[in-house]
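Sequence in, structure out.
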Amino acid sequence: MCGIVGYIGTQSATDILVSGLERLEYRGYDSAGVATVEEGQINCVKAKGKLSNLRQKLEHTISQAQIGIGHTRWATHGKPEEHNAHPHLSSEMSVAVVQNGIIENYLEIKEELIAKGIEFRSETDTEVVPNLIAHFLTSSNSLLEAVQKTIARLEGAFALAIVSAEHPYELLVVRQQPPLVLGFGQGEFFCASDMTAILPYTRTILNLENGEIARLTPLGVEIYNFTGDRLSRFPRTLDWNPIQVEKQGFRHYMLKEIYEQPAVVRNCLDNYINLNWHAQDNPDYSPINLGLSPNLTDNLEHVQILACGTSWHAALIGKYLLEQVAGIPTTVDYASEFRYSPKPIIPHTLTIGVTQSGETADTIAALESERARRADLEPRLQAKLLGITNRSESTISQIVDRIIDTHAGIEIGVAATKTFTAQVMSFYFLSLDLAYRRQTISHSRIEEIIEGLRHIPSQIETILDTQADYIEELAHDFATETEDFIFIGRGINFPIALEGALKLKEISYIHAEAYPAGEMKHGPIALLDNKVPVVAVAMPGSVYEKVISNAQEAKARDARLIGVTTAMNAIEAAHTFNDVLTVPEVDELISPVLSVIPLQMLSYHIAAIKGLDVDQPRNLAKSVTVE
């Protein structure tokens, strides 16, 4: 969602703030602004649209300020106009605030402040915060105390960064749900909503936890809870390198991240597969090392998976694997729906939350509600919670019993690619581990699947080497006049059809829908004509002939057919499909990790040819941290 950056130190605050905001552009935004404190006053500059507009405005200002806050806004309350952009100032311009999240009771507070003669300049919920702080400062000389009194009045989920003209050597940071991280440098300190904003300056960080306030001064960082108690916390050093968030010669981050997928899969394999395990030699311990305790895995009768967006598609593949490999009945729910209509309580249930950022508001809230509603029940009914995330230090790690770290590295492109693949890999490892523990498939079949997974990195490289130019050329046919796409698949590859449609919608703005191939004749086939291309994921296996048959039905309605199949099947497939995107020969069970790659590439090239902002598509955010 929105991006926050704060700085106090010895360098130019404005330069660091804008640089940090640029590294948060991937989160999605529609306006931006910075506020700095210098010579006893706050200087605030805001602009609608891209950061380049803000930079142009800042070129006409001279500032030596060494403390400030910055923000990229994704509109919630109030239209994306300059007067609604952050930072927001108190009416007398003495306090500046940036916020992520939503103040739910802002109207009540706003009416109170208006009654006291305070004038408001925006339609946002945030503006009540600086005015409340300024009000409490009239009876106290402590900025920390004024902030504590203010947040005691606020309801909702919010992350705040605050500066005051009367306290020019203090930067206050507050977290209640949306993430915030602190950075520690040499005589300088940072805050940000995502560590990518501050990686060029420091790798020593501390994640602020819910219900905490940080006071940053030139002398150091103090952390308090909301009631004012001083807390003892210790920062840690990241092993991430700033080079990881550079494009490294690629035109877009999304393309770079597509090409990083072989390395991501290798990293997953190295972290979770016991390399020396063989079915005949090592039958007494699991081939998978996820570190799951027997408390999580023993006696399972049911698995429920909670996720949103692309993570939901990965979860659907997880459902297939958990049922077909591990033999466990599994449900997949949108986290946003589960929160308000939870399933009946089933004994010995493992609940899995899947979230790339570890901060997705709906997924976090659904997991919290699941733990709460089972808390006072007998042991067999109590919550067993597992998280699958790319950010092991994120909020989800504080809620669940165990994390499976997807090890995908920083993903900048809003449209998920490598993190989707890493999530799917996590479900392979989980299902294989549970299958071994439950003895639902033979050790030799487990070894066969693992051997297939070991070939995935080189097979993805083959797709990228042999298909990239062809897919780019094909994309030209759909970049100008195509308005609708249909994707179809069956079995374990139906979620890949869903993911392919979502990618196309997200970055090219072409309307796309996905259906189980067998459902086309039950209604959606009415959409087909020669203007609606159909993409069929037709991987050899148990449902291959069925998908080909369903594709023929589309062909009979004059639809242009694009098939995703194996190279060995390409000649046969050419009799059905107008265009064939090939992947190496692969076990059907493992095929989704390959079949998704051509669809990612097709969506990318269509959007790039159209000249769209591939990495920051309109209206979207990388991490949705508010409901």
